[in-house]
What does this fold into?
Amino acid sequence: MKLQLIGSGGHAKVLRDICEQFGFEIVPESENKVLAFGALHPEALEERYRQVDENFSWPCLIHHAAVIANASHIGEGTHILANAVINSNAHIGKFCIINTGAIIEHDAYIGNGCHISPGAIVLGGAKVGDFCMIGANAVVVQGTTVSDRTFIKSGAVCKNK
It folds into this structure.
């Protein structure tokens, strides 16, 4: 498959590596496009999502070392990086980044355009709204609801009151 990477920063380097592992050819122009740039706050995540042109195909890129349950849903254009875990009945929206070593537990819901940073954990039944940034090693406790466009700092523990 031929892919056009849109972006050239650190996230693009990781995605280029995944493409090479699967034998995808990176070309300057293609019907199959990959948003190959990350975002570090909710406004940038939403802007990233606005780059999507529905006239093109936006394949998921999933690292071979990721673990994904058969009974999970992964939305189009999502990137799942090395050692990430997506467990049973988890729902991942469109154009998300599930970064290195992140864990999405059973029955968790991740909205569209979210970035779940390295080592972050979203526990069972938690719901993360659209365009949220969950920082590195943060934990969203089971059953917690995170509103759209929320930024959770690295190392934080987020739970309902």
Observations:
- The mean pLDDT is 92.
- The two ends are 47 Å apart (CA to CA).
